Amino acid sequence: MGLPVTHIDHCTVIITDVALAREFYGKKLGLKEIAPPKSFDFVALWYDLGTTYLHLLLKPHADTESARHFCFHVSDIQYARTYLTQQGLTLEETVKIRYADRFFIRDPFGNRIEILQWEYKYDPNLDGRYLV
């Protein structure tokens, strides 16, 4: 038996400006900020996503740009496209996945965020390519 993982608890990314992070995540994306643990002796912003959390850690420098990302599943991808475009964000189209519509955005610090809606549950036996 492997590790008894039930779900992803949180994802952490680096930010360099607390006010800019709150503007983007709290106002533009409309996420709910919650208080981080009292025991922290460093600056961190936490957002409650319902079934998982997003943690933002203040550091002096942003991460280098890469393909790393986290993904927000949405219930209405067309609304998400319209809403994020109205917020002034650039939508980056990407490789298609059968039964999914998705695109990427970037936060002000260069972190990639995938926005995805599954039309049907992914079935690796039908839709998977191979294991590397």
Describe the protein's architecture and organization.
By secondary structure, this protein is α/β, with parallel strands linked by helices. It has one domain: Roll (2,3-Dihydroxybiphenyl 1,2-Dioxygenase, domain 1), CATH 3.10.180. It contains 3 helices and 8 strands; from the N terminus they run E-H-E-E-E-E-H-E-E-E-H. A hairpin with a 4-residue loop joins strand 3 and strand 4. The longest helix has 11 residues. 11% of the residues are buried. The mean pLDDT is 93.
Brief overview:
The protein has 132 residues and is α/β, with parallel strands linked by helices.
- Poorly predicted runs are none
What is the CATH top level name?
A: Alpha Beta
SSE order in H/E notation? EHEEEEHEEEH
What's the tally of helices? 3
Radius of gyration, in angstroms, nearest whole number: 16 Å
CATH superfamily: 2,3-Dihydroxybiphenyl 1,2-Dioxygenase, domain 1
Report the β-strand fraction as a percent range.
25-35%
For the record, the count of structural domains works out to 1
List keywords for this structure.
132 residues; alpha/beta; 2,3-Dihydroxybiphenyl 1,2-Dioxygenase, domain 1; 4-stranded mixed sheet; 3 helices
What are the SSEs and their pairings?
Blueprint: E1 10-15, H1 18-28, E2 32-34, E3 44-48, E4 53-58, E5 69-73, H2 77-86, E6 92-93, E7 100-106, E8 112-118, H3 124-127
Parallel strand pairs: 1-4, 5-8
Antiparallel strand pairs: 2-3, 3-4, 6-7, 7-8
